[in-house]
Amino acid sequence: MKNRLLKIIKIGKKEYMENLLNKGELYLNTAKYYRKHENEQIGDSHENDFLIRHGKISIKINDEYIYLYNKHRPIAFSNPNDNKNLYCTYGVFTGNFVKKEHYMLHEIPNYLIKEFGGTIVCIINPIEFFKRIEVAVKEKGLETQIGHVEYYNEDTYDGDLTIFNKRKQFSHQNEVRIAINNENDAPIKLNIGSINDIALILDNKMLKHEFENGEKYIINPIYNK
Question: What pLDDT, in 10s, does the model give residues 23-55?
Fold first, then answer.
């Protein structure tokens, strides 16, 4: 089976997750906020880097070349235009599941649940969720991009980066993110209305998804490890 996005998960404090579910409130912080955040799960000092290079690099300044070189680590360049707001979610893909005797199982790690706030909202219809976000963003006169984050090995990768690239050490987050182009260096709040019809809170319970061919996929949040 093709690696399909089944659901998306948002983890946060109970108050905020209830507001997401009942009011459709989304809070999108800036790329700069995440780059400076001290929590190792939430923050990433290389958020919004646009280039990574290995070996010697030359930079031309006033008709003279300055050479940069670090033989132990690659050199990463931060994007000078931090005009992005981000909404970060955990993507549940068919490829994330482990085959059991009668079903496929995916467990959401306890440490992620704890680090991100303790309450899980599961969006069971991601496509409709994205459509509502795009409408709300368009009403603000802004543009949005939605995609799955691709993870790279900073010890071997050499080349351009986008807002949908992160270092391999974050790959356990399975991130699907929404990025909004915003000239103002400030958070954005979106209101898309109640999503009770396409989402639910996972409170110590498993969620089952069954395909037409009878295959069963079970999502199990681990709260007590």
Answer: 999 999 888 877 777 777 776 767 766 666 555
- For CA atoms 8, 12, 13, 15, the dihedral sign is negative
Q: CA–CA separation, 210 vs 17, rounded Å?
A: 26
Calpha distance 208→216 (Å, rounded): 7
Contact between 8 and 92 under an 8 Å Cβ cutoff? The reply is yes
- Residue 2 confidence (pLDDT) above 70: no
Please enumerate in sequence order all residues whose Cβ is within 8 A of that of 145, keeping only pairs 6 or more positions apart, or say none. 163, 164, 178, 179, 180, 181
How far apart, in whole angstroms, are the C-alpha atoms of residue 168 and residue 17?
28
Which residue from 93, 126, 113 is spatially nearest to 11, judged by alpha carbons?
113
**What stretch of H or E contains 18?**
helix 14-23
Contact 48, 78 (CB under 8 A): yes
Q: Are strands 104-108 and 216-221 parallel, antiparallel or unpaired?
A: parallel
